[in-house]
């Protein structure tokens, strides 16, 4: 049986506890990036009751959630995802992918400068994915969250999910023949095994790079508010600047300077969103480690689609009026 569930949300400000996503176990907090936001979530099921395929379109939002049972594949097509898990921030760019085990996390769904965020979600029980990995002899691939995969592997999986969504939408809840459902399920499992195999191959060659990146990120987190250079961090880790840069590009697809800037931007945005009435953008930027204010404003706009002053003004408008809720 093909099943489709659609959830639409249009409102301003924070939706708080009134909003519960149809995709995840529980939603703790939700807020649109703009005063008037839009979110459309569609969830599709087919013959395998444990597998759910989702498509999310959003003007941009933040959501704090807990997923208790399912692993989650995230594949942003337009826009990007910034995910915080236990204090660690990771970005999944458009065209990329990541896998998350059951956990509690905060996700910033970032829309592109023009248009809506558009992304695919695939969810299945953790035991089911582990069995796929065991059958393929690659169980070691499931050792951590946010596993990276090559663009070609991600594209094959995303294209198949697009096909399934279109096929299920055409059926509009009609009965799917068991043999058809079994064939669709078998191909999806093969693609998931390919994705995990790709991850395992990459992990085998990047264990040292991953350790280097994690150690550098610890320094970034501890000293993001200081004036530090990447060369200084490399020396502290006993590495050459080139080795540290290569590690970041291999693991995250960006350089260490870009990663440090992103950490500072996330802190600046969090500070702007909880700023007291007397606080100003300049002081917040300086406190977060930015020394060139125009570059800070440019980077902030590229990342969040609004100027720091606009974030601060929006926060003050929301604080000055009763919260509005919509489900």
Number of helices: 9
The biggest sheet, with number of strands, parallel, antiparallel or mixed sense and barrel status, is: 6 strands, antiparallel
Radius of gyration from the alpha-carbon trace, in angstroms: 21 Å
How does the helix and strand content classify structurally?
alpha+beta
Number of strands: 11
Overall pLDDT confidence: 84
CATH class of the largest domain: Mainly Beta
User: Helix and strand succession?
Assistant: EEEEEEEEEEEHHHHHHHHH
CATH architecture field of the largest domain: Sandwich
Low-confidence runs = 323-327
The CATH superfamily label of the largest domain reads: Jelly Rolls
| Straight-line distance between termini | 28 Å
Helix content: 40-55%
As for the number of domains, it is 2
The percentage of residues in β strands lies in 15-25%
* Fold-level CATH name of the largest domain: Jelly Rolls
Global shape: globular
Looking across the biggest beta sheet, what order are the strands in? 1-3-4-11-6-9
């Amino acid at each position: 049986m093909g099943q489709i569930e659609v959830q639409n949300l249009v409102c301003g400000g924070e939706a708080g506890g009134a909003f519960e996503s149809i995709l995840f176990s529980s939603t703790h907090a939700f807020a649109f990036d703009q005063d008037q936001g839009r979110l459309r979530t569609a969830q599709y099921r087919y013959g395998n009751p444990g597998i759910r395929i989702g498509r999310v379109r959003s003007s941009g939002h933040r959501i704090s959630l807990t997923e208790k049972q399912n692993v989650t594949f995230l594949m942003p097509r337009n826009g990007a995802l910034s995910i915080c898990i236990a204090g660690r921030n990771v970005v999944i760019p458009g065209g990329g992918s990541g896998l998350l085990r059951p956990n509690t996390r905060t996700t910033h769904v970032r829309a592109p400068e023009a248009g809506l965020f558009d992304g695919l979600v695939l969810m299945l029980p953790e035991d089911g994915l582990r069995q796929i990995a065991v059958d393929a002899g690659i169980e070691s691939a499931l050792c951590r969250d946010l596993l990276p995969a090559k663009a070609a592997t991600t594209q094959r999986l995303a294209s198949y999910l697009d096909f399934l969504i279109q096929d299920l939408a055409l059926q509009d809840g009609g009965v799917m023949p068991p043999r058809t459902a079994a064939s669709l399920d078998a191909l999806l499992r093969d693609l998931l095994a390919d994705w995990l195999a790709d991850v395992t191959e990459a992990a085998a060659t990047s264990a040292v790079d991953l350790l280097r990146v994690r150690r550098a990120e610890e320094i970034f987190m501890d000293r993001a508010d200081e004036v530090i250079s990447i060369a200084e961090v490399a020396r502290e880790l006993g590495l050459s600047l080139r080795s540290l840069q290569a590690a970041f590009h291999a693991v995250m697809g960006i350089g260490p300077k870009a990663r440090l800037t992103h950490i500072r931007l996330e802190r600046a945005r969090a500070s702007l969103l909880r700023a007291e009435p007397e606080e100003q953008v300049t002081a917040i930027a300086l406190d977060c480690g930015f020394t060139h204010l125009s570059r800070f404003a440019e980077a902030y706009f590229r990342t969040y689609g609004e100027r720091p002053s606009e974030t601060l003004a929006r926060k003050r408008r929301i604080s000055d009026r009763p919260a509005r809720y919509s489900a």
